[in-house]
Design brief:
Layout: H1 2-12, E1 20-23, E2 28-30, E3 43-47, E4 55-60, E5 63-64, E6 77-78, H2 83-86, E7 91-93, E8 102-110, E9 114-126, H3 131-158, E10 162-166, E11 171-174, E12 187-191, E13 197-202, E14 205-206, E15 219-221, E16 233-236, E17 241-248, E18 254-265, E19 277-279, E20 288-290, E21 299-303, E22 311-316, H4 327-342, E23 348-353, E24 358-360, H5 365-370, H6 373-391, E25 397-401, E26 404-406, H7 408-414, E27 418-422, E28 426-428, H8 442-450, H9 452-461, E29 465-466, H10 467-472, E30 478-480, H11 488-500, H12 505-518, H13 523-537, H14 541-552
Parallel strand pairs: 1-9, 10-18, 22-23, 23-25, 24-26, 25-27, 26-28, 27-30
Antiparallel strand pairs: 2-7, 3-4, 3-8, 4-5, 6-7, 8-9, 11-16, 12-13, 12-17, 13-14, 15-16, 17-18, 19-20, 21-22, 28-29
Helix pairs in contact: 4-6, 7-8, 8-9, 12-13
């Protein structure tokens, strides 16, 4: 009977077929079947005689026994759970590797019949890509890379790269990089197409005194820029032109010279579009009107150039919220006011709206409704501080009110030195309708502008007046008839800024300081303040320039010195 069983087993597992060819990464089932009904306590072992230890996989009735398994097969082998009951002893080998090429032996050991070799399976694992194919692929890659480098070389050194931005963006980066190690005493100059110095960097720091006035406060380069070789320039309020970056040695020799052409795209208006970009004015004093739901566009600050150099236009742009004051707008206006305060070239500021029919609707009540009670007070305090900073700017500020200025919107306008409105504009401190009071300076500034009694009447009744009524009560200096484009007040404000622009800038600053401080004290103290401010203009170069121009019967050229 034992002889018959062995013969039957050998017949069932006679598997001396030719080697099976497979590829790296494949999975393969090594076949082996036999009858197990007469075995008492069998153990099946798959092995490789060329390995130490030789065990590939071992199976007992209790389950897998892998303590003697060769580690190269760890986690890659498995057998069916009922293998010893069904006689299906095939081995599943996954993630084939080149080193798996070998002859695999399937054997069984039993207490009754001892050791029996059931059969061999030859496996040949090949590379999925043969060596010659890899060599060809590497060659093709090298050809592609070489071609790309050649193209890049031609583009980088033989052409002028272009940078395109949409009209109305606040800033753009003009890329200029080099892998060449530059000396620490090298001088970097950016110039525009008119040969004006846009930015100068030398000996580890910027040189603003060499910069053209047009670009004052509008450019920025990285610190320690010579170390990484990044000479890129960030430019605010870009316009179409070609910029040139030149690097000089200490002796004045040109070490590198690259150009960047800047194109500013003007988007077309489409019916139903959520945003539109269009010019508010043509020529000097151009302001961009831009509608968008992106919070970064809540405020646009434009430093005008040419004959209008020195005029800054601050445009509020929250069309969906009617320019209501929220946390983001307060943050952006703080930053804008701080930049203007530091810029000595600024001579006047126009605060306006870029949204037709609205100046500022006051606080953003939707955001306010989401605030916890503990957040309201600090937010109002911050808004009050912003409006105070706006009022403390050393240069003349003009509010151009072409639409509704309510609550905090009117408080913002009251902080400006001069207010100009269209005849259709609506103005009022309407907070009492919401059972609160003006909290950003309205209760203090309005009485100082129109008188205590009338200010109380407007605030108590939450009354809204139009531009004509506002002029009659002294709330605005000028009320102009609104035009078809809805920017009549802005145009009149621009005219006034142009009147202020040619005057002595230091004298203007001192005059504002004397008025603002003097009006809060008695006349005697006010005269002392005026005297102190006058003493500040006596030693200036501008005063001497004014006398010389008068004597020579020409227009003075004041520089704020």
């Amino acid at each position: 009977m034992k002889t018959l069983l062995v013969i039957l087993l050998l017949i069932n597992v006679s598997q001396h077929a030719s080697a099976v060819e497979l590829y790296e990464g494949d999975s393969f089932i090594l076949p082996c079947q036999y009858n197990t009904f007469a075995l008492t306590d069998p153990t099946v072992v798959w092995s490789r005689s060329d390995l130490s230890p030789p065990t590939v996989h071992q199976r007992q009735r209790q389950g897998d026994e892998l303590k003697d398994q060769n580690q190269r097969y760890s986690g890659r082998t498995s057998m069916k759970t009922d293998a010893l009951e069904t006689g299906e002893l095939s081995l599943n080998l996954t993630n084939l590797q080149l080193s798996d090429s070998a002859t695999y032996t399937c054997s069984v050991t039993d207490l009754r019949y001892g050791y029996m070799k059931l059969g061999d399976v030859q496996v040949q694992v090949k590379e999925r890509f043969p060596s010659w194919a890899k060599a060809l692929l590497v060659l093709l890659v090298l050809l592609v890379v070489s071609g790309g480098l050649l193209f890049h070389f031609c583009q980088y050194f033989m052409s002028v790269p272009q940078v395109e931005v949409d009209s109305g963006v606040e800033s753009v980066q003009l890329i200029c990089e080099t892998t060449v190690c530059l000396p620490k005493d090298a001088k970097v100059e950016w110039k525009d197409a008119n040969n004006r110095k846009v930015h100068v960097y030398e000996n580890g720091s910027d040189r603003p005194e060499e910069q053209d006035d047009k670009y004052n406060g509008l450019t920025k380069m990285k610190r320690n820029l010579l170390e990484p070789g990044d000479l890129s320039l960030t430019l605010k309020y870009p316009t179409d032109t070609t910029y040139t970056c030149t690097v000089y040695s200490r002796e004045g020799n040109i070490l590198m010279k690259k150009q960047v052409e800047l194109k500013v795209r003007v988007c077309q208006v489409e019916e139903g579009a959520e945003s539109v970009l269009c010019p508010r004015l043509n020529g000097h004093g151009a302001v961009t009107r831009y509608y968008s739901s992106d919070s970064k566009d809540d405020l646009h600050v434009r430093y005008l150039d040419g004959e209008d150099s020195g005029i800054v236009v601050v445009g509020i742009n929250r069309p969906k919220a009617k320019n209501a004051i929220n946390k983001n707008l307060v943050k952006m206006m703080f930053e804008a006011v701080e930049d203007i305060k530091k810029n000595k070239k600024v001579r006047s500021v126009i605060l306006c709206s870029l949204v037709p029919g609205i100046f500022c609707a006051g606080a953003d009540l939707k955001e306010r409704a989401k605030m916890h009670q503990s957040e309201v007070g600090p937010f109002v305090s911050k808004a009050r501080a912003l409006i105070t900073e706006l009022g403390n700017l050393p240069v003349p500020t003009i509010a151009a009110i072409d639409g509704a200025a309510l609550g905090g919107g009117l408080e913002m306008a009251l902080a400006c030195d001069i207010r100009i409105s269209s005849n259709t504009a609506k103005m009022g401190l309407v907070e009492t309708k919401l059972a609160i009071i003006p909290g950003a300076g309205g209760t203090q500034r309005l009485p100082r502008v129109i008188g205590v009694s009338l200010a109380k009447e407007l605030i108590f009744a939450a009354r809204v007046v139009d531009g004509t009524q506002a002029q009659q009560m002294g709330l605005v200096s000028h009320s102009v008839e609104q035009n078809n484009s809805g920017d009549a007040a802005y145009l009149r404000a621009l005219e006034l800024a142009r009147e202020i622009n040619p005057q002595g800038p230091i004298a203007i600053r001192m005059a504002k300081l004397a008025i603002n401080q003097g009006i809060e004290v008695d006349l005697s103290t006010g005269l002392a303040i005026e005297e102190a401010c006058y003493s500040q203009v006596i030693p200036t170069k501008d005063r001497l320039e004014g006398l010389s121009a008068f004597k020579e019967k020409r227009q003075p050229q004041y520089k704020g010195e």
